Each structure stands twice: as structure tokens, then as C-alpha cells.
Predict the structure of AAA family ATPase.
Amino acid sequence: MTRSTDAPSARALLGRDAETAALDRFLATSARTGGACRVVGEPGIGKSALLDHAAARAAADGWQVLRGSGFEYEADLTYAGLHQLMLPAFPTLADLPAPHGGVLSTALGIEAGPPPRRLVVTTALLSWFGLLGRRGPLLLVVDDVQWLDRASALALSRVARRLSGLPVALLTAQRSGSESFLDERTDTLTLGPLDDADAARLLRSRAAPLHPATRRRVILEAGGNPLALVELPRALTSEEERAGDRLPVVLRLTDRLRTMFAARVEALPRPTRHLLLLAALNGRDGAPLVPTLAAAAADLAPAEEQGLVRVERDQRLVFRHPLTRAATVELATPAERRAAHRHLAELATDPSLRAVHRGEAALGYDEDAAAALQEAGRVAVSRGDVVQAVARMVRAAELTAEPRERARRLAEAAYLGANFSGSLDGAHALLEEARRAAPDAVHTLGAAAAAAAHLLNSDGDIDTAHRMLVAALAHADPRSTDPAVEAAVTTLMAVCTFGGRAALWEELDRTVARFSTVLPRALVLGARTFGDPARSTPAMLAELDALVEQIGSDTNPVRILQVGLAGHYVDRLPRAAVERVVDDARRGGAVAAGANGLILLAVDAYHTGRWTEAVALAQECAEWCRENGYPTLEWGALHVSLLVAAARGDRQRLRDAHERAHRWAVPRRAYAVRTFTSGTEALAALASGRHEDAYALLTSVAPPGDFPDHDQLGVWSLLDLVEAAVGTGRVGEARAHVEAATALGLPRVSPRLAFQCRAGRAMTADARTYRAAFEDVVDDPGASAWPFHLARVELAFGDRLRQDRELRRARVRLERAVELFARLDATPWLDRARTSLRSTGRTVRRAAAAPDALTPQEREIARLAASGLTNRQIGSRLCLSPRTVGGHLYRVFPKLGISTRAALRDALTERERERATTSAAPRDDAAYGVS
């Protein structure tokens, strides 16, 4: 016999690390003392893959490997399984003693003769295995034991109990619930389902790209079964199904899965199958069926006895495996399914659920059912389930006979798919279907909104999308309550955002004014607070504050994003609500909505100094956009990453991204992308002290003192322009810019913009007033909310003091700047601050100090506060104002991990203990960045 050479190479099995390790240990032990192990699990769970792994590992280690399998059609053939298993070793029978070789030759059908007794066969097999074992360890692998013929099963069973001392391992696999020929004391490895994370990884590696909602459905209905994860996507026959728009109530099974899971359902009595069908089509809640199931307990009993379902204490029915649910639906005829849906529609108390079942029960066109489904789709949006809404709209269109109405419903579904659910391919297919249904309907407002959303998000065709929307809106009734008006205006605002040109925004302003009475207030406000934040009035901001508060518990992603975008440039983010949208997208919900939410969260994290979080959110958004084909939206995510890269001095990343941005944006006239890359280039120039370059880049958009209409960059880069102007000696221009911002009312827009205006006044103050102006900024406890800008102000203050030879005071400011820049890992800024600090005569300063290290002044203030002194008493003792003392304590508390003065004493005691331990350790001179 030759060793097995066709075993697959051993490879990592996804989610099976523990199981493969257990088999590796089994092989290592069996090579010395022999042994048997069985692998048990449901069909498709990966038993054969685990056997393949063991066989490949054994072959690689020099084992002899013999493999066999039970076959249902050979279950009645005596010793058929043993014959298959040992066939490669038949040439060695001649080496056995005459009685044993003859017995096995007869039993396996090689020679004619009377059937040998079972005990004799067992003895002969052990002799044969012993002979083979002397040539090297032997692995016997038997799959599908549940179909092994009885004679082979009994022979291997007796042998398995007598392998001790032989270098022979018997490894078998069988389905859960089937009879095993091995002793109950045999080692058993039970395979459970893959967890959701491993299931998602397997699905991504083996299936064509799927919309996240479709991927979520596949994972849910596969129930962690690897075979189902591979097979279920193959049953998705259309682009709309893969895009999540036309998914059936229960996913269809392939022939392979149907063979595995349908037989036991098919054998049930007809009344039992009817109950299972109702439960399968009723969804996962099951509440409407509770009375029906309670009244039909006897009919349900056969399914419970077979272990296919279980009834919970609240009388809800649960399928033990999702594929049994799918098999139940597969086995029903179309007429049976429609009848079941009609029954469920009668039982349903929720109007939306009733509409869904009515829609599934309908045969042919049914306008009443279509209208109810359309309304159910809009309710689904309000409840946060845009993916479900698209599916309901599509089904409503299928039931619609009138071509233009059918086209309108398809267009509404396409708009939601393109702008929110993340189904661009599906949206395109739906738009094509709408054109075929009513060629003259392509100019309707709904079709224009859907087509423009698709154009913007896929090709980035700014001008075509703008013209299409403006033309369609021009013919719409300004009093119309058609949802297409809101859809068109929302899309037009997105087009203007990426177009970045005043003329585009002006058309939006006129359109919003015309439809202001029928549009949501968040959308009306957002046209100004997002489109032209510098001109946000106090009345607008007050109304927006109220909307932010109201949206807190809302589940409608459309409304949440409208409020979120309205607050984007004026620092009013409904964080919790936006996080809900993002979390839903992570679970397979509305991906495009989630991507927009990620951008909002990433920008907020950037402004507040949580840069690691900002980059992670931006990268997650970019991955979603690439995976789902949203190249335009990806630039919003990339902008946040580039801001951090600019501040951290990653010049190569900036160069590569900017070249790519200009190649993409210029042909499409997406000038906002180009404008924002100028802002990041300017920030990078400031970081390295190239003030002239920064000034040129920023003033290429608008001159100092000018905030053009719809200039979003000017609000974000207010302090950048001031710093660039001061750094190039243009203090008068910088001062004019701050005055213009103040006159425009930017300090009233948000605390962050108020801080920047005050910082700008400090940077442009004269020699007599700059100290007080700077102290007013840096000692404000609220300033720590924006650590990057605060660090830059501390650096500017320290440099002014250093130039005036006030070295002691300068060190305090520069040490603070070093600390803040170090926390942010803003390397070029940190280098500038360290250089300035060295010039003050500071000789020993840890560059890699812990992010929460206290400055000497903070430590002294904390010590005095811990002793019970008030801020006023501490200020009197240290010659500081009470406000300055409060500012220092505001920064001390998070460093010490506390929130009250009462906890100061214990926190300081613990800190001193840590410092004593650290000082006793050998000093690492390489960690000291200032010599």
C-alpha cells in the first residue's frame, strides 16, 4: 500500500481553531497509543472539512491515510464501507498470516467462501492494522457514518475498542441525532454553528459581492452553517435580490440544501406542515400565531417530536434551524403560500404587517394592496428600516397596473436605495424598470430625484444631476405634499455640496424658498446652516437647537441625517441619533445613510481632538463606500483622514490623495473636493512653518476679511488664515479677518467658533494687550474641548512671551503646547513647540511623557485644592486669577481619572506612589527629547 497522496493540504478553517487544535492533539496521542474520535454535527456544518484538515495534517506528518464514507444506496451491502476504506491496502493482505488474510479476502468479496464470523473478522482486522502500523502511524477516516452498512459499522466498532497500543487512529463523522457505532465513551467533537463574525468572513470570501442587507439575511438564515453560507447566495437570481430590493420572505434553497433539510419536513402530516408554513411566513416575532398554535398543539406535536421546532413558554414557535424554516416554505406550493399569507393578514393587528401579507397573497395587479404596501414602506422609513421600505415599495410597484403610477413607485424605491440604503446597482435596475413601464415618466420629479441621486453617488456627474433636478422642480407645484419634492431637494443639496459653486447653491436657495411651506424644517434650515454657515442667524440656530433635542429618540434615518447635516458646520451634532443610524448600517441596514453618519461623527471627533477615533470612523466609511460603489461619498470620509494626516505631517499620503482628488474632481466640476484639499494642504504647510504657502492656498479661495456666500471652508479655516497671515507679517489682514468674522456673528454660531475668534484676536493683539487676550483664551475651562486649536494658541502665546524675553512664563505655555501636541501625535507641531521650549533654556523635559502627566503648576494647584482651599484662596497664594485656577483643575481631573475635588487627595497619593516607583527605575536617556 502507498500512503495517501490526494489528501488536501492542511489549511486554517475559519472559526474552527479550537476544533482543529483538538484533532491535532488526538493525532499526536494516537500516533503513540492509538485511539478513536467522532465528529458530530448537523448537515453542512463542516464535518467533512474538518476530516480533510486532519487527513492533510496526518499525511504531511508522514502518516498512512485511508479514507472511506457511508453511502445511502450502499447501506444494505455487507462490508461495502469496509471494502471502500481498505481498498488501497488490499495488496498487503498477502502479508498477513493465512487465516487472517483469507478471512478478510472472503469478507471483502475478494475470494468466494462462507461468511466468516464477526469476531474472526475483528481479529483479522486488528492483525491487518497492526501490520500496517509497523510501517508508520495509520489514520482511518470514515465520513457519513450514519449511512455506513451495518456489518462495516459493527466491525469498526469492535476494532475501535481494541486499538490501544497500536499506532492507529480512527476518525469518523456523522450527523447529529443519528446512531453511532462507536462506544459512547469515545471522544466526541461536536461542531456548532459559526458565530456571526466568522460567518460574515466566510460569506465575503466565497460569495459575489452582496448588499449588506442581503448579507445579513444570508447570515441570519444560514444559522452559522458553512454550507448554507456558500449555497444560499447562489439561489439569488437577480441583481435586485443581491442588492436587497427584492428578497423573498424566506430565502430560496439550492438543490443541495433542499436535499439535506427538506426530507424530514416532507414526511410530516399535512396539518403539521400547514402550521409550520404559517410560522415560517409569519416572521420571527410569532405573536399573531400564538392563539392558533395553542389551539393546534396536537397537530404541532409531530414536528416537536422530530426536533424540528420548539414551542416557547409564551407559545411562540421557534425553528431549531433557520434552514428548516426555509425548507418548509420551499416545499409549499405557490397556492399554499398565498393562502397562508391571507390567513396571516387576517390575524395581523399591525397595519404595516397586514399590508405586507396582503401584498404577498395577491395574485396579479391589486391597487388597494399596492397602496397599502406603499404606505407600509413609508412607515418602515420612519421606523428606521430603509432596506425594508425599499422592498415594500418594489412589491407595491409589482402590484400596480397603471404604468405611470408603477414608475413613480419604482422611482421612490430607487431614490431610497441610492441615497440611503446603499443599493446603487439595485437603484439603477429599478430606474431602468421604471423607464420600461412608462417611458414618458422619466421626467417626473420622483424619477429625476432617483436618477440624480444615482448619478451623483456613482459617476459624480454634478452638472447633469443639477440640471435634471432644477428642471423637474421648476414644474412642480410648490404646495405639493408629494414625497418626491423632499427627495429632489435633498438630492439637490447633496449635488451642491460636492459642486462647491455659489451658482449651484443660489439655485438651491431659490428652490427651498419656493417649497419652504411643504419641506421639513430641518431641510429648510440646513440649506442655510449647512450651505452657508457663516450667515446662520440666531433665530435659525435656536430652531435648530430645538430640532436637535427633538430628534434624540427618533428612528427615521432620513430625518436624523437632515438634522445632522443642518448642524454639521455650526457644531450641533445629534450624536446619539446619528450613532443609531451608523449602528443600524453596521448590522446590515441602510449603508449609505450610515456612511453619511460616519462622516458626521468623524468630523466631530476631529474637532474635539479624538483623532484616532476620527481616522477609524473615516476609514470605516471609506471601506463601505468602496464596497458598495459610492466614490463621491468617499471623498467626505477622505477629507477627515487628510485633516489628521496634514496635522501629523504625513506628506506622502497628502500628495497621493491630492493628486487623486484633483484627477477625479476637476473633470466632474466637483470643486468642493478641490477646495477642501487646498485647506488640508494649507494646514500641512502651517504644521511645518511654511506660512507663506499656507497663506497663498487659503486666500486662493477668498481674501482675508471676506466670507463669500456659501463658503464652507472659510468657517472651518478661520484660525488657519489668521495664523498664516500673522506668520507672514500680515497682521493687519489677520486682524481684519477676525473683525469680519465677528461682525458676521460667527462667535454666536457656536462655542468653537467663538473660541477661534477670541484666539484670532489674541494672535493679532498689540504688545500691550496680547497677554490678557491670550490668557482669556487659554485659561477658559471650555477651551480644552478643542485641544488641537488650544495647543496652537498656547504655542503662539509662548512664542510671543519668548520673543519678549519672558522666558519663565513662556515655558509654562510651551510645556502645555508640547503636552497637547504629544497627545494628538501631531509630530510637526510638536517639533516646533519643543524647539521653542529649548530656546527658553528648558534642559530636561521628557518628550514621551505620559499623556496624562501633570505640569508643575497643575500639580501644585491640585495639591492645594486637595487640602481644601477654594479657587480664590489658591489664586491668592499663587498670584493667579480664580478663573485660571479653575481652568487648570478642569484639565487636571481627567488626567487623574476623577470627576470631583473630593477624589483629589487619593488620586494624588496614588500618583506620587507611581512616580516614586518610576524614578527608582533606570533612566532611559533616549526617551528625553529636550536636552
Remarks:
- Confidence is low (pLDDT under 50) at residues 1-10, 843-851, 917-931.
